[in-house]
Write a structure and sequence with these properties.
Blueprint lengths: L10 H8 L3 H19 E4 L6 H25 L19 H25 L8 E4 L2 H23 L4 H9 L7 H23 L3 H47 L7 H16 L3 H8 L1 H29 L1
Antiparallel strand pairs: 1-2
């Protein structure tokens, strides 16, 4: 069965064919995600926070800093941009400070990874880090869960004891505060900082935060989507395994209905052309094994009936 989610829009491949430069923008945004993740998180895995990723993030910051410098030089000669006058007020860009702190904190991440490897407490090599803003996500979940629990306890009063017990055992309702923090709290924090930067005249920092906001949503969304798809694939495999088991036993269930139909239609073709079973085994071994098991069970049942008939004749 297909392991991808149903997407009527065609997904990124379709968007890439319609929008010129779509894949190039996504490629650049992945570079932009490194600096903001460096500042927002800690405890990275060795293969997630690599030297090449660190250098890519540093190049992004230096590029934005260079563009900001060239723009300020250009506008200094144009009166309409505030340049050329005796009373021109200029705001010193903080982009250099951002680059400096990125470099320092990035080195600290590498030192942390190195120390963890030495003392034997290494993180998973693909660990995406733990957010510094988790305390905000925890506080939000605690407040929301408190309201939800009170509402559900009120509803439980009107339900049978069995269902009321299940509701109480389901507390807390919201639990995955780490995903919530990465998907909502972190981007919201970056967005607020972006507005503050623009309001204070920090144009270069503001544009960097704007790119970081988009990059963070892109990269974090892709990572959580991949993690969710992995979990869904495991669950689907368990459901499909149970459905195959029931289909091979001939148990009529809704879950195994489609599989049973596929099996018996394929079996009819195998009965007409037995050698096709080996071809099926190469492409779909599970289908071939199920057909072989059903045929063996049928042959055993037929042999039992024949033996019974022979005994009756004697």
């Amino acid at each position: 069965m297909n392991s991808k989610a149903r997407d009527v829009t065609g997904g990124r491949e379709a968007w890439g064919s319609f929008i010129p430069g779509y894949f190039m923008v996504n490629y650049f945004l992945r570079w932009c995600s490194v600096p903001v993740e460096t500042l927002l998180r800690r405890d990275f895995g060795e293969r997630y926070y690599t030297k090449s990723n660190f250098i890519a993030g540093l190049l992004v910051l230096l590029f934005i800093q260079l563009i900001g410098y060239l723009f300020s030089v250009f506008t200094s000669f144009i009166p309409s941009f505030g340049g050329g006058g005796d009373y021109t007020v200029r705001v010193e860009s903080r982009m250099g400070s951002v680059t400096k702190w990125y470099f320092i904190i990035g080195l600290l991440h590498f030192v942390t990874i190195w120390v963890r490897n030495i003392i034997g407490s290494a993180k998973h090599s693909y660990a995406s880090g733990k957010s510094w803003l988790l305390i905000i996500g925890k506080f939000f979940f605690r407040v929301v869960n408190l309201g939800l629990e009170k509402a559900l306890l009120f509803v439980a009063k009107f339900l049978p004891d069995e269902y009321a017990k299940r509701i109480k055992e389901s507390f807390p309702i919201l639990r995955d505060y780490e995903t919530f923090t990465e998907r909502f709290i972190e981007p919201l924090t970056v967005f607020i900082c972006m507005l503050m930067a623009f309001s204070m005249g920090q144009t270069a920092v503001g544009y960097w935060l704007m790119l970081s906001f988009m990059a963070l949503n892109l990269v974090t969304g892709e990572r959580h989507e991949a993690s969710r798809n992995f979990i869904l694939n495991l669950r689907d495999q368990m459901l499909e395994g149970e459905a195959w088991r029931k289909a091979m036993l001939g148990q009529p269930t809704d879950e195994a209905k489609q599989i049973s139909q596929t099996l018996y239609e394929t079996m009819r073709e195998v009965e007409k052309t037995p050698e096709i079973l080996e071809t099926i085994r190469q492409d779909q071994p599970r289908v071939a094994n199920a057909i072989a098991a059903i045929r063996a069970r049928k042959n055993k049942r037929t042999n039992s009936l024949d033996d019974g008939a022979a005994v009756d004749m004697i």
